[in-house]
């Protein structure tokens, strides 16, 4: 913080650019460029906002930072406020983290008492920054930046039309700098040690370290901080201790429920935004769900699509109706009553949703479907023929015939 | 209504605070829900149509408009919990409480619901009761947890 206050604003932003820091929430936009653009906007007041909605299933890394090192986040936001000249900031924490909201609130109080927040921060005349915790109330879509801003304003959390972008016209129609918890928490390190040092910890294309959330049928579940560049296999087998009960890995669901699913043959891909993109995947929030061979891909997919059916905000038709229909078809599949026609309908519907949905939720909801069908088509076809190889699906429909 | 006024006073009558006010009101309601009279009262205080207030609170899954149990027992059913046995947990709780998802025990103590991921996937399968999260659940552990709430020992 002290160092940031001794730097020229643009030099500080330059360090962040050099750091090769990409947004850690899921969209992976380069943070330095985002800040540079926001800095250039000549309108005010500007707001600092932190997305701590962490609703992506399989993601629990921000929880870790919020409860164990909230000062890291507060410092990152305050440095941002210093650079941008923002006077107010909001940390939007999901309602399900009620216990954690209390921890962050008390951290803010303590920072204020110590002169790191509030008026004349660290004795600097005119450097004022107030930070407030705002609670969500159970809506996955509020992780979408424009919906989150609507929700802070006390409204229904439905996404806004873009453009205008948040950086121009965000909270209360004012320029808003909005980042994920993990992204803000990288800022103090970058300022302290320099962008190059931070960048050198990762790969050429992804600077720094990443918090990965390992869950599912793996021995050591939890949050791991890894340098970019190690492979998924290393994460799952070395750090994670391999698959539970000596079973076989069936597939990995990467990046949360809206991410891709792929089989063991692809887990030698490096954890790096560029390498993953080349393989057709996205790192998303950093969630790695490991699924073993006792599970059925159709049954699993049904669970995932039920999640999206529930969380769709209902604003646009492809997502509101699409998810509902997909669940219907998957229901039939798990009962053994789906036809080839249903299967084709499901595939084309997924494409329609991907291309025509209004926001990221609807656009990415069919990703697990598209990738599971790509790598496990055989199992879908088996279900149409009334067979579930794992025995998870009841197939009661077929038997009843 | 005194309590409602007190909370409204604390937040002021800015519309921005609607969600925060409602969360607190639900917390003190004793029925884990927002009674219609309270909704009307808040709508008037914030100078909003009642229908607008309902459109907001019914959008968010944490709000209830019908009375619910003192303790909401939420069983996560998202992917990571699903592959770690969430279905068994739900079944055990259904038996233990004699409820189907969405139902409330006759004494008004428990309401069983299914929920989306609440970030406890590292200890899946997980449930949440009020603000407390319990994970790595087994049949015995579940029984103990439910009993501790019945006997009011859960805060020890
Ligand atoms: S894609 Fe889904 S979540 Fe996004 S606006 Fe449309 S209905 Fe709402
Ligand atoms: S999937 Fe159940 S808590 Fe995350």
Give an overview in words.
The complex is a heterodimer of chains A (401) and B (156). Chain A is 46% helix and 13% strand. Chain A contains 17 helices and 9 strands. In chain A, the strands form 2 sheets. In chain A, strands 6-5-9-7-8 form a 5-stranded mixed sheet. A 4-stranded parallel sheet of chain A has the order 3-2-1-4, sandwiched between helices. Chain A starts with a helix and ends with a helix. Chain A is of the alpha/beta class. In chain B, helix 3 crosses helix 4 (50-57) and helix 6 (86-97) packs across helix 7. Chain B is elongated. Chain B has a 4-stranded mixed sheet with strand order 2-1-3-4, covered by helices on one side. Chain A binds chain B through residues 54-60, 63, 94-99, 134-140, 151-158, 213-217, 221-223, 253, 257, 287, 289, 291-292, 295, 300, 303-304, 306-307, 310-311, 313, and chain B through 14-20, 22-23, 55-56, 59-63, 77-80, 82-84, 116-124, 128, 131-132. The structure holds iron/sulfur cluster and FE2/S2 (inorganic) cluster. Iron/sulfur cluster binds next to helix 13 and helix 15 of chain A.
Alpha-beta classification of chain A: alpha/beta
Instruction: Name the chain pair whose interface involves the most residues.
Output: A-B, 52 and 35 residues
The biggest beta sheet of chain A reads:
5 strands, mixed
One letter per element, helices H and strands E, the order of chain A comes to: HHHEHHEHEHEHHEEHEEHEHHHHHH
Across the major sheet of chain B, the strand order is 2-1-3-4
Please report the total strand number of chain A as a whole number.
9
Estimated helix fraction of chain B? 40-55%
């Amino acid at each position: 913080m002290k160092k940031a206050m001794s730097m020229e604003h643009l030099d500080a932003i330059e360090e962040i650019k050099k750091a090769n820091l990409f947004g850690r929430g899921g969209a992976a936009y380069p943070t330095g460029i985002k800040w540079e653009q926001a800095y250039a906007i000549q309108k005010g007041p500007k707001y600092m906002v932190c997305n701590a909605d962490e609703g992506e299933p399989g993601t629990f890394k921000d929880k870790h930072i919020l409860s164990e090192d909230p000062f890291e986040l507060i410092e990152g936001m305050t440095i941002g406020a210093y650079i941008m000249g923002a006077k107010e900031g909001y940390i939007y924490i999901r309602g399900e983290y009620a216990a954690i909201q209390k921890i962050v609130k008390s951290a803010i109080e303590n920072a204020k008492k110590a002169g790191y927040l509030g008026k004349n921060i660290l004795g600097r005349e005119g450097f004022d920054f107030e930070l407030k915790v705002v609670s969500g109330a159970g809506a996955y879509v509020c992780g979408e930046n424009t919906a989150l801003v609507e929700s802070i304003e006390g409204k229904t959390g439905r996404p806004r039309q873009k453009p205008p972008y948040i950086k121009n016209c965000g909270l209360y129609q004012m320029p808003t700098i909005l980042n994920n918890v993990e992204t803000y928490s990288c800022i103090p390190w970058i300022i302290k040690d320099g962008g190059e040092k931070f960048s050198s910890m990762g790969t050429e294309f992804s600077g720094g370290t990443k918090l990965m959330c390992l869950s599912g049928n793996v021995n050591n579940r939890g949050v791991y901080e890894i340098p970019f560049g190690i492979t998924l296999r290393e994460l799952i087998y070395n750090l994670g201790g391999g698959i539970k009960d000596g079973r076989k890995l069936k597939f990995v669901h990467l990046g949360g429920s809206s991410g891709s699913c792929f089989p063991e043959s692809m887990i030698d891909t490096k954890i790096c935004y560029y390498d993953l993109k080349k393989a057709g995947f996205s790192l998303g929030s950093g969630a790695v769900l490991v699924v073993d061979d006792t599970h059925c891909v159709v049954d699993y997919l049904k669970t995932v699509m039920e999640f999206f059916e529930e969380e769709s905000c209902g604003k646009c038709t492809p997502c509101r109706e699409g998810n509902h229909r997909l669940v219907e078809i998957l229901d039939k599949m798990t009962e053994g009553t789906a036809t080839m026609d249903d299967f084709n309908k499901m595939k084309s519907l997924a494409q329609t949703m991907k291309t025509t949905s209004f926001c990221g939720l609807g656009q990415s909801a069919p990703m697990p479907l598209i990738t599971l069908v790509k790598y496990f088509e055989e199992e879908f076809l088996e279900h149409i023929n009334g067979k579930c190889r794992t025995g998870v699906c009841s197939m009661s429909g077929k038997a009843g015939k | 209504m005194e309590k409602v006024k007190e909370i409204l006073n604390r937040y002021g009558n800015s519309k921005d605070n609607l969600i925060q006010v409602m969360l607190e009101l639900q917390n003190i309601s004793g029925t884990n829900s927002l009674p219609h009279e309270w909704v009307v009262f808040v709508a008037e205080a914030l100078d909003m149509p009642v229908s607008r207030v309902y459109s907001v609170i019914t959008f968010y899954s944490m709000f209830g408009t019908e009375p619910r149990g003192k303790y909401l027992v939420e069983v996560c059913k998202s992917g990571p919990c699903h592959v770690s046995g969430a279905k068994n947990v739900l079944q055990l709780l259904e038996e233990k409480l004699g409820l189907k998802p969405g139902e409330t025990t006759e004494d008004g103590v428990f309401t069983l619901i299914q929920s989306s991921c609440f970030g406890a996937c590292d200890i899946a399968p997980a449930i949440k009761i009020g603000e407390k999260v319990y994970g790595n659940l087994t049949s015995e552990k579940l029984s103990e947890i439910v009993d501790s709430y019945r006997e009011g020992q859960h805060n020890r």
